[in-house]
Amino acid sequence: MLYPTLSVLAASLLAACGGGGDGPGQIVFPPVASQPAGPTTTVSGVFTASALKPGSSTDPVINAGYYAGATVCVDTNGNGRCDTGEPAAVTDANGKFSLSLPAASALIADIGTNAKNTATNTNVPTREVLRVMLDQVQEQGTAVVVSPLSSEVARLVEANSTSYAVEKQNLATRLGVPVASLLGDANAASGSVQTALLSEANALNNRFAYATTKLDRADKFPDALATAGGDPRLTGMAGVTTATANVADNRKAITFLQSQQAAFTVEGVPRYDNIFIVMLENKATMSILNSAYAPKINGYLKAGNQLVSYYATGNPSEPNYTALGGADDWGITDDAQWNCDATGANAVQDTPTPDNTQPGLSKSPFAATCTQAAAVNHNIVGRPNLFNAITKAGLTWRTYSESMNPGQDFRTDSVADAAVTAKDNVYAPGALGGNATTIGDATLTLPLPAGLYKTKHHPGMAYQNVRSAPEWKYSNRTMGGGQWDAMLKNSADYTIPATYDYDQLGTDLASGNVGNLNFLVPDQCDDMHGISVKGTNGAAATGTASDCSSVANNVSATAVSPIITRGDNYVDFTVKRIQASALWKNPQKRVAIVLMFDEGNATSGFNSCCGWNPLKGSDPAHPVRPLTQNADGTWAIDASINNYQVGNRGHGESIFGILTNQANAPKGVSDSDAYSHFSFVRTLQDMFQLADPVVDNSYMNRSKYTEAFISANIMNLPDFAGSADTHFDSVRPINHAFVIPAGYTQKQSGDVSTTAQVGPDANQLNVWSLKQ
Questions:
Q1: CB 3.0-4.6 Å disulfide test: which of 45, 355, 587, 740 passes with 760?
Q2: pLDDT given at position 46
Q3: CATH number assigned to the domain comprising residue 506
Q4: Dihedral sign computed on CA atoms, order 299, 300, 302, 308
Q5: Which long-range contacts (CB under 8 A, 24 or more apart) does 425-428 make?
Q6: Model confidence over 404-414: pLDDT tens digits?
Q7: Is there a single domain that holds both residue 121 and residue 270?
Q8: What's the per-residue H, E or C state across 275-325?
């Protein structure tokens, strides 16, 4: 078929876009007058859109709409654009289009910034390209629906080397919708089907818009930190570890199809639907690895994958949780209340604060004022964090906390309640059963102690914009399985709401309404932290709980370590609950469980890595400061954080295990590259596509401190000047892409007794991989 001249094409475009009627925009490509007209196929349909409505106090609200003024075409040269001369039509005000073609063809939809999303009645912010497979065009004919889901089916067919029918069914199974509804018009759907379609469309729109950005700026493929062997940007750079600066950059400009796949494996980290992060406390690698007191955790490490060189941020707990929430501890080096030294621009904005003057909080332990000699602000204002980023992307987060006083405010520590009691655990495995050594006293009655739930163990607590977020109350939830659960209904310290759910994790696992990002925080007995729990035995005798401290008072030093065994069993209980859920058993859902500790127990030697502050002490002439980006793209020192230099000092190695529900994923992989809490935050940003590897400042706080970033900004980073190993001191995503050079001796902290590894791992598979 010969295409019309540019003047004819221009006239057709004007006719398609003008008139203001409700009929579909159409361009018909007539045959040249000297040739007889051949048979044509009319392909018509609608181009659906979606948009996040900000400010929901529950799950995100996604509105349905259409794209008006977008171009639908046959991309004959496969460049991801509707070029001049390619059969095309422009959607009308209702998203409708029609094309007359010599034969049905696969289509693309080119959404330029002049197109309007009717869900918001605004122009789209960035160009995006979506696709429709030929199979769908043939199936739907004159009712073709172009959507992010149609593009996702096409992408999955290519990624998995399968077929349209297979991937359409797989995607429907993943979303829990009828396959007949999957590629229909979401505007016409209703109820849970529409919610599922729009939620997925929103997430996919983010991905495909990002893919188009990568294509349009000619990114190299793959992302630099997903390149096997090391970061190719380091070649020729000064001041970087010699062993890491020898990877040739053989990457080429990304193609259209590569861009669509790359948007779902940012820096080599694949997209997951849900991740559950089980937070444990204060145990170094050597305390847990191969320990007879933690057989279940060790079983999970062997059954899944693990990081064997994973470091914390600092000691004690609070800076680690704060770093896990936003990739920095902001100079915090203690467990003080979140309003400590929060003055001036950092003043607390919670209205009201949850102190004991508020209705229902008469026993609140929250102090309205808090100051310290160090004068480090504990209320972080205006800084990016995972929680806000997840919400902004239209995704969901949850924190599930165990053993709270029923009805209490999540911003306060739990309090002692004599009305809530439990018997001492007789066996070392704790309340969840087992047959280990008898250590407890079955006649000992234990009242609910204070501090089982602590705000210092909440990764979002320090961030003002998280506590002030509309979804804060909705997204903080309870988690059952605790020793005192059965009697919590007797609590007299807070007014218990009529519909109070003592175990929202169990409820949510049953319904599937968990977050995309889930932090699971056991209480201070079940997380291996330990507290002293005093009880009574008869009228006069008293005793201490047998398994809620490092070594119980009635157990010899050579006996079992009850707190580790108790935590081991709670982990097993929690993992089995997740694995028993329909969510985990849906093979099309990508679900992961992470088992990790906030910190180890190192006291000397190399204690941390990967974005930490290696400068021991502060040089008054060159104080340690974070960096902020200027309007022109340059970086400058941010001096607004008081005593920032005292934080981010690091702490020793601890266990980090990964389980996934992907049957064909690699198992038994150990990644010995050096990672930290900052690395994990970067990885989560990649997993949920919250950042862009080409834009350093899109990564929050210290998660941007890659070896290339440090080298480029070394004049403003005196804490890294003179580093003996910039690779060890910088942040990488957890993707196993870096291959340790043959002669490189891996650093490790002073609390690891194994021989330091020399050279690369035997197995270089990605620990997050969905398939072998």
A1: 740
A2: 98
A3: 3.40.720
A4: negative
A5: 425/483, 425/545, 425/546, 425/547, 425/566, 426/546, 428/293, 428/546, 428/547, 428/560, 428/562, 428/565, 428/566
A6: 999 999 999 99
A7: no
A8: EEEEEECCCCHHHHCCCCCCHHHHHHHHHCEEEEEEEECCCCHHHHHHHHH
Phi, psi of 50 (to 5 degrees): -150, 160
622 assigned to some structural domain: yes
- Token pair for 372: 């310290």
Distance CA 588, CA 565 (A): 34
pLDDT digits (tens, 9 = 90+) for 322-334: 999 999 999 999 9
Give the residue from 103, 110, 156 showing the smallest Cα distance to 130: 110
Residue 240 within a domain: no
Contact 686, 267 (CB under 8 A): yes
User: 84 and 206: one domain?
Assistant: yes
Report the mean per-residue pLDDT for the chain: 89
How does pLDDT run across 551-587, given as a tens digit for each residue?
A: 433 333 334 488 999 999 999 999 999 999 999 999 9
The total number of structural domains that make up the chain: 2
Supply the angle between the helices 562-579 and 504-511 in degrees, to the nearest 10.
Answer: 30
Mean pLDDT score, 385-398: 98
Phi-psi region of 643 (alpha: psi -120 to 50; beta: other; left: phi over 0): left
The answer as to whether 140 is a domain residue is yes
| pLDDT tens, residue by residue, 18-42 | 333 444 444 433 333 333 456 789 9
* β pairing state of 627-629 and 25-28: unpaired
| Residue 194 to residue 211: CA distance in whole angstroms | 25
Token pair 């199809």 is at which residue? 257
Q: Please give the residue that has the higher pLDDT: either 558 or 592.
A: 592
Q: Which positions ≥6 away from 480 have C-beta within 8 Å?
A: 402, 502, 503, 505, 506
Domain span including residue 445:
266-332+372-716
Pairing of strands 305-312, 651-660: antiparallel
Question: What is the residue whose two structure tokens read 């059969």?
Answer: 87
The span from the CA of 112 to the CA of 204, in Å, is: 17
**Residue 562 has what pLDDT?**
87
Query: Which pLDDT does position 172 carry in this prediction?
Result: 98
Please indicate, yes or no, whether residues 182 and 322 belong to a single structural domain of this protein: no
How far from chain centre, in Å, is Cα 571? 21
* Cα–Cα distance, 67 to 22 (Å, whole number): 14
pLDDT digits (tens, 9 = 90+) for 661-720: 999 999 999 999 999 999 999 999 999 999 999 999 999 999 999 999 999 998 888 888
